[in-house]
Amino acid sequence: GAWISDQTILLDRSASYRDFLVNATVPDRTASMTIWVWSGLGGSVTVDSFVLNRSGGDSSGENLLTNGGFETGDLSGLDTGGSVSLTSTARTGSWAARIGSESFVVLNRDVQPGEAYRFNGYYRTEGSGTDLQAGFSFWGSGGEWLGDSLVDLASSSSFTPFSVAGTVPDGAVSLSAWIWSGLNGVILADDLEVIPVQNAAAEIQSLSTQETGGTTSGETSGGVTSGGSEQGNETLIEFGTRESYSGLFYTDPGTGERLSGALSGLKLNANGTFSGRAIVDGRRLALRGRFDGSGTHRTDYRDGARMELQLIQNGASYDLRGYFTDTAGTGHVLRSLRAAYSKTSPTDLAGAYTMLLPGAESSDPTGFATVRVYPGGLVLTRGRLGDGRPFSHKGSLSDGQEWMLYRVMATKPELSQLGGTLTFRDTDQVSDFDGELQLTGPSSLTDEMPVVLPAIGSRFFATRGVAALESVAATDGEAICHLEEQGTSEAVDDWAVLWSSNNRLLGADGSRTLRGSVNL
Known about the structure:
Strand order of the largest sheet: 13-14-19-20-21-22-15-16-17-18
CATH superfamily of the largest domain: Galactose-binding domain-like
Shape: elongated
CATH architecture of the largest domain: Sandwich
Radius of gyration: 29 Å
Helix content: under 10%
Number of strands: 34
CATH class of the largest domain: Mainly Beta
Number of helices: 2
Distance between the termini: 92 Å
């Protein structure tokens, strides 16, 4: 019963759940060990979901990184991207890797399904960067991404251990073990090791006896926990198809919803894994994980925010629903659309369109945009609001002939967003598609509440040899472009215009350039 030694860490104060990791090596003559958490005088600590990660007899002991300590004086054994160099600020030895903003180091290796690996090492951070992560990515034979197992690396001024486990999923033929330093971040990494685990089932032993009802399980990463909910009697999702989703977030459902963000390009793989990005009230979120058998996935962020996603079987495909709770407790409802078309299943709406955005008041200037729909369902929009601000967007057409447009118009001094759903429907003599866009944030057109901009669009046909307006053709192609001061009938200028036979406009005055087209 003689005490031999302690191997401990200090727990930082935190108002929300955070992960901690203690690396320990059993000393000689040890017969038993005690795992403990101690709360000192005048404080308390709440702990949950203890996990003991055991190495040694369960792993081969072979570090697949031949230069994980960088003591060869170079970066051999690893591939790099961005700004990566050596630094003498090392945890052990003479050298460590310095990974700059939006840069990475990576080990690529061929694998087989069912194999298990652990990626260990030490890191410290500099600057105020975001998206600092380490983990595994798994790849199929065609190079398709099959999923990630990762940890977020919290800011640390001293070398701190990290560890992430990964089991190769079905269909994977290779993995990447990587460290990523996001925008404005710097990571110093040292003493890295990638170890194959021979007995994956014995490698992780849960020390928690807590029931799982109402909690989440799955991948835990530096205060960010993501995974599916407990499976009970829920309807199981029959995975097997690949889908792509886009969507919009709204606050205050039922009481005058306000645009608050967007989901861009969430890709769902045939095995239930997914990846994508979202922005909610200016906060950018990277989304990765795997839906459980009931189609559920939940991510808990270290600051108390939470993202919940739910797939709903709809024939051979799935609908996606979501709900994001921010740090203030405000809920944001996700409304999404599934991309329905491809090169092998094209849409008959392909073509060029012109969209008009009348202002909220009759005296407000009108915005405009060109919209190009491609056979594969891609929708490209480029235009300007009535106040002159440019915007552009790339979206996808759903089977309901809808697409969602979203653009951040400004981030300073306050966030301004433009977004809404547009629908193709033929309104005789009026439009080919229509909808409403919300414009939030400060501008010459908005107050505290978002402005709703009606949108109408019509298809453009440029028919050679046919004049668009008989009245123009009757005057030998001459016309006048009349410009007025906003809100008045006072003329500012008149331009002479030539109207060509293919409905193109040309400035007749050589000192000015005027080009345009007419929709029929």
